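User: I'm preparing a small set of examples for a lab meeting where we compare how different chains pack in three dimensions. I only have the primary sequence for this one, and I'd like the structure in C-alpha cell form so I can line it up with the others. Please keep the answer compact; I'll paste it straight into my notes.
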Amino acid sequence: MWDLFPSKIKYIITSATSILLFFIFSKYLNLPVTQSLSYTVTAITLLAFVIGKYAWKPFYFIYFQEKFCPDFNGTWMCKVESNYEGGKVVEFPVTFEADFFSIKMKAKTTIGNTHSNYCRVIRNPDQSFQLEYMFQGKNHSPSETDTVYYEGAASLRVEDVKTMKMKGVFWTNRCWNKQLNTAGSIELSKL
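Assistant: Understood. Below is the C-alpha cell output for the 191-residue chain.
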C-alpha cells in the first residue's frame, strides 16, 4: 500500500513526523542533538513497524479501500482455466496476507502448494487496482508430464472493490522444456 502513495506525500509524512519527534526529544526532553537524532530514528522505525503491521487495520474504512488501496487480507476461491488438457478448470483456496508495506500469497491444491516470492498492487491509469505476483509451486506427486517445481506469474484486475472479485491471466514455466507449460485465465472470489 505504501507504494501507492505519491512520492510527495511519503516525503511529507516522514519529514513532518521526524521533525516533530526531533523537536519533542530536543526541546521538551532536553536531550543533546545526537541523542535526539538517535531517538528520532528509533521512534520512526518503531512507529513504522507498529502502524504498518498492525495499527492501520482498525482505521482502514471502505473509503480508503475504494480511493487508496483495497484490503487484500483474507481467503479467496481461485478458479483457473488452463490451456492444458483442453481448458481444464481447477479450483482451490488462496490466502493473501497484507500490511502497509507488503503483500504475500499462499495456496494449497490437491497436488501441491504455492507461494508468492513477489507481489504488488498497482493503480492503473483508469484508477482501477491491479494485483500482480510471481509464484513458486511445488507438486507433491508429479506425473510423467509434470515437474516437481515450477514458477509462474499472474496479473489480476480488481473488478469490484466491495466484493474484491478479481479476474486476470496467469502463465507458468511448468514443463516448458517439453512444450507443456500452462497459461490461462484466473478468477478470485473472496470467501
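A couple of notes for your slides: Residues 121 and 131 are 5 Å apart (CA to CA). The chain has three helices and eight strands.

User: Perfect, thanks.
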